[in-house]
Amino acid sequence: MTSSAFRRDMPDEVLMVRPSKWTLIVVTSLRNERLRFNELRRSIGTISQKILTTTLRELERDGFVSRTLYATIPPRVEYELTDLGQDLLELADQLEIFFRAHRAQVEEARRRFDAASHSANARLVISR
What we know:
By secondary structure, this protein is mainly α. 65% of the residues lie in helices and 11% in strands. It has one domain: Winged helix-like DNA-binding domain superfamily/Winged helix DNA-binding domain (Arc Repressor Mutant, subunit A, Orthogonal Bundle). Strands 1-3-2 form a 3-stranded antiparallel sheet. The longest helix has 44 residues, at 83-126. It comes from Devosia nitrariae. Residues 8-107 form the HTH hxlR-type domain. This is HxlR family transcriptional regulator. Pfam families: HxlR.
C-alpha cells in the first residue's frame, strides 16, 4: 500500500496525534514511572502549567496517558503511559535517534534557509 493510498483509506482523525512541542517530551518524561502533575512539571522544567494541562488532556483523550485521581485532601492525581503510550514512546525514541544522527544537517539547513530568507527580505525592502 502506498502512503497516499494509506492516507486516502484512513480518516484524518485516526492519523492525527495532536503533536505539540511538548507531546513527545511529556511521553518520554513518563517513560519509567507514574508521576504527579507537579513532579512531571518539575521533571520537564520549562513548561507552563496551562500547556502541560492541555498536553496531558490531549494525550489522555487519545489513549496514550491514563490519569488516576485519588480521593485525598488535597486530591492527588497521577499520570502514566498506557500500553498505547508505550508504543508512542518507542516512536519517540526512534525520532530521537534520527534527530541526534542528523542534527548537524538540520542545523546547516536552517542556517542556509535563514540566510536566504534574510537576503530575500532585504531585497524586498530595497526594491520598494
